[in-house]
Every structure is written in structure tokens, then in C-alpha cells.
Amino acid sequence: MALIARTLLRPARFSRQLSTAATGRQTTTTGMTTTMMMVMRSSANVGMRMAQLPVLTTRRTIVAQKIESVRFFQSGQVEVPPANEYQYEDIKKLTQNPNPDKILIDVREPAELAAEGYIPSAINIPYNSSPTALSLPEDEFELKFGFSKPNKDKELIFYCLGGVRCNYSQELAGQFGYARRANYLGSWEDWVAREKAAAAEKVNK
User: Fold this and answer.
1) Other C-beta atoms within 10 Å of 20: how many?
2) 61 vs 105, more confident
3) Per-residue pLDDT at 41
4) Where are the alpha helices (DSSP H) in the chain?
5) Which H helix or E strand runs over 123?
6) Which pLDDT does position 77 carry in this prediction?
């Protein structure tokens, strides 16, 4: 009888062992699932915090972007004639005797003009903030700048502060269909220096 009882009890004990093992595996699986969910939730929170961080744009980045835009328009899509070069004496004559076929364009920003001044008769089409201005339709251009868009049969003479932005501007103008272009490479710095020298010479006479 005792042998029969032990034999009958074994399946029950074995069943309890299987149940305990299964429970352990379930607990382990549940723990792993919980851990994975915590990791995923943590990663999502980090991603949200990263998305909320402000984007830092440096001046170097802006300059690099603009150089890339110039390279895009210089990619050989349009072949244009080279630009002429103007000196102080040429610009001085133009300010004294305006020529309707020549348009002097200051490509500095409006704040620069307000703070430093500009060459007489020049119009302002800023390069940094509006590099593709001359590609705009005429009505959009006039609405944006307050004056008519230059015709493509005019000669556009560009200047800036020291001769860098004006060169980029004339290259873009060529890509936009303006064949007659020129640079005043001395630009505003040269103009101011020469005007001061001319004024001092008059005083000394």
C-alpha cells in the first residue's frame, strides 16, 4: 500500500514542479518584457528631449550654406560672359552723371546702409538675406523691395563692403540671365577712403 501511495503521489509532486518552473519562466519573461519596455520608454523620452533642443546656427554655417548656393548656380548650367571691373573714378562719374543703362546695386544688408551710408544713386538688393532676388517674378520683386526689378538689358554694377559679396552677387545675376554685369571690387571701403582723401585735398588747397 505504501508503494502504491508513493507512486500515486509522484505525478502530483511532478506537476507542482512543472508549475513552479513554468511560473519562474513566466516571471523571468515578464521581467524581461518590463525591462525592454522601460528601455524603449527611456529612449523615447531622450528622443523627445533631443527634438526639443534649440537648433544652433552659427555664422560659419550660414556662410557655408550661401557658398553652397553659389556653387550650385556655378555648376555650369548657364554659361555667362565675364563681368567688368569698375574703379572709384568710374563710380564717381556715374554718381555725377547717372546713366539709365547702368544700375548701381549695393548688396549689403539694410542695417549696414542705415549705419554706414551708401553710394549716391545706388539701390539695395541684399545678398545675404535675398541671394536669389533677381530670379523673382517682377511683381514679387517690386512687392518685396519697393522698386521695379532691373531689366536684363541693363548693366548691373555691384558693390558691397569689401568686394566679396558683390562678386557672388554678379555671378548669380549671370545665372539669372543678366549678361551685362560689373563689380566695384573696392566697394564701400574704397569709396569712403577715396572720398575722405578727396575732401582732405580740397581743404588743403
Assistant:
1) 10
2) 105
3) 52
4) 2-52, 59-73, 88-96, 110-116, 138-145, 165-175, 187-204
5) strand 123-124
6) 57
pTM of the model: 0.64
Q: Which of 156, 129, 134 is nearest to 73 (CA)?
A: 134
CB atoms within 10 A of CB 192: 15
Separation between Cα atoms, residue 95 and residue 97, nearest integer Å: 6
With a cut of 80, say whether residue 200 has pLDDT above it: yes
Within 10 angstroms of residue 188's Cβ, the number of other Cβ atoms is 23
pLDDT of 179 > 60? The answer is yes
The gap from C-alpha 205 to its chain's centroid, in whole angstroms, comes to: 50
pLDDT one-digit tens code per residue, 22-36: 444 444 444 444 444
166 part of the active site: no
Q: Look-up: residue for cell 542695417?
A: 111
Q: 71: burial class by Cβ within 10 Å (0-12, 13-18, 19+)? A: exposed
How far is Cα 107 from Cα 134, in angstroms, rounded to an integer? 12
Residue 140 dihedral angles phi and psi, to the nearest 5°: -70, -40
43: pLDDT strictly greater than 80: no
Which of the residues 103, 156, 157, 160 is marked catalytic? 160
